[in-house]
Amino acid sequence: MGRGLDLASTFLITSIFTLTATFVWQIKPDKYANSYRNRRIRQSWPGSCSTFLDEKWKVTGTVTHGDNTDFAITSNAFEKVVADLMNEEAALETIQTIIHHQSVINAAVLTVGGFAMGSIAETKTSDIAKQYKLNFETTYNIARPVFIQMMKQGSGRIFLIGSQPGKDMQNSKGMTAYGLSKSLIFRLAELMNEEAKDTEVITCVVIPSTIDTPQNRKAMPDADFSKWITPEKLAGHIYENCMATENVKRIIEL
Predict the structure, then answer these.
(1) Own/partner long-range contacts of 77-83 (Cβ < 8 Å, ≥24 apart)
(2) Chain centroid offset of residue 41 CA
(3) How, if at all, do strands 107-110 and 251-253 pair?
(4) I need a labelling partner for 129 at 20 to 30 A (CA). Which of 120, 148, 181, 183 fits?
């Protein structure tokens, strides 16, 4: 039997583009964004952070340079940090700064990423490289220093954002570069869990369904909203996995 995390814990959530996403990767604001309408499109942070803030956690959220979005989070336990997570040195400096201020990082949800359509015939190696950088490098740039810190602490939870196309290549038809890049998220989690075997450091992959937000309702007005998951419920699943003392899930499929 393991142990859950202390209640007075530090929680890190990362994103990279203008923040309209909750515990889900950020859709890149380019020509491909609207083509993924039947999936996660654009959500918001506050409802998810509140789950942890209500439980007296300290929450640090990263945003990209030039993002002046007001998240309407008034808690003194919340800190917004500007960071370029596509830059390995900048990401490392961000984590080191958080550790310096908070001493520990008990949980991290890494939501950075992007999306692109494209069959094999339509996908060049440059397209794959772009998705690799958006979906894997940004994750690894944060996951690596966080993992190292948690191993020093002897405990922690890391949540990576996966997807159905990344989980099974049969779901990646027409999304070649995206599916290949997201598949590495699952392999990374497996490697991290193998290295952390017999410790309380656990890496989980979250595979979210459509998030029930005003933005998604507007984008998909004819959908059955009752089948969607709320940001609060999604955050609740992550929180439960943080506090679990046994049977911690490595894959959270919602």
Answers:
(1) 77/53, 78/49, 78/53, 83/14
(2) 14
(3) unpaired
(4) 148
Q: How many residues does the chain have?
A: 254
Query: Residue 75 burial (CB < 10 Å; 0-12/13-18/19+)?
Result: middle
* Residue 151 near residue 208 (C-beta atoms within 8 A): no
pLDDT digit string (tens) for 45-84?
555 677 788 888 888 888 777 767 666 778 888 888 888 8
Which helix (H) or strand (E) segment holds residue 201: the answer is strand 200-207
- 13 class by beta-carbon count within 10 Å (0-12 exposed, 13-18 middle, 19+ buried): buried
pTM here is 0.81
- The pair of structure tokens assigned to 136 is 């894997």
The burial of 125, by beta-carbon neighbours within 10 Å (0-12 exposed, 13-18 middle, 19 or more buried), is given as: exposed
Report residue 207 as tokens.
Answer: 């595979």
Cα–Cα distance, 107 to 66 (Å, whole number): 26
How many Cα atoms are found within 13 Å in the side-chain-facing hemisphere of 202?
Answer: 22
**Would you state the pLDDT for residue 128?**
97
